[in-house]
Amino acid sequence: IIEVERVLEKLMRDTCEPLGALQEVLERLQTKRINPWEKKYGQVPSCDLGEHCAVRKGSRIGKMCDCPQGAFCNFFLLKCL
């Protein structure tokens, strides 16, 4: 019975340390807030003429950057024209 108590005591001590660390991390994450002006909703960086502005993956095309005013992203060449 004494050995069982020792094993249980060791098990409790070993599992409580990681749980305490996890609790601490979760508390830090809850207090960390992102300011509204730091959020970037769907914004992509701007690129220059002739630069690659999109990526093709299979049948899908993903936009990498916005072309300058007066130019457009050619999805065949994947460059700003």
Automatic annotation (TrEMBL):
The UniProt entry, under Pfam families, shows:
CART
Q: Which segments cross the bilayer?
A: none
List the Gene Ontology MF annotations in alphabetical order: neuropeptide hormone activity
Q: Primary place of residence? A: secreted
Cross-referenced SUPFAM superfamilies: Satiety factor CART (cocaine and amphetamine regulated transcript)
Q: Where on the tree of life does the source sit, at the highest rank?
A: Eukaryota
The answer to whether UniProt assigns keyword Ribonucleoprotein to this entry is no
Q: Which UniProt keywords apply?
A: Cleavage on pair of basic residues, Disulfide bond, Neuropeptide, Neurotransmitter, Secreted
Subcellular location(s) per record: Secreted
Report the GO terms under cellular component. Answer: extracellular space; synapse
A biological process (GO) of this protein is: adult feeding behavior
PANTHER family, per database record: COCAINE AND AMPHETAMINE REGULATED TRANSCRIPT PROTEIN, COCAINE- AND AMPHETAMINE-REGULATED TRANSCRIPT 2-RELATED
Family statement drawn from the similarity comment of this UniProt entry: Belongs to the CART family.
Task: Kindly provide the name given to this protein in its UniProt entry.
Answer: Cocaine- and amphetamine-regulated transcript protein
Task: Read off the lineage from the record.
Answer: Eukaryota, Metazoa, Chordata, Craniata, Vertebrata
